[in-house]
Design brief:
Length: about 120
Amino acid sequence: MNGTVLAYSLYIRDNPNPNANALGGLSRDDKVTADFKTNGWWHLTSIMRAGVSIPLPGAENYSYEGATNGFIHLDPEGGSGGKKTVEIWVDDVLVQSAEVDVLTANGLLAGTQTINYQYP
């Protein structure tokens, strides 16, 4: 299973217990892969940060997804929700268009991206 870290920092522990030894950490937007999950704890098999593979810090590596999946988001099969085009129209005139990444959970928008636009 593949996921995206939503927390700004998240411990990697040597067993699935909040009191276990902290071996290292994950950062927001890290991409993780796990071979199984137990009681919300992901057994990590790989970490990617900004497209670069990060070595696992221990022989066994676990991170907690959070009670409401607020720390690690399970990515849909095939990765993210893809890219979508957002358009800003004023008086039937297209004033700005931007392509944004869409992160979905169960078909619903799970991430946000802000586009700043100042109307002339």
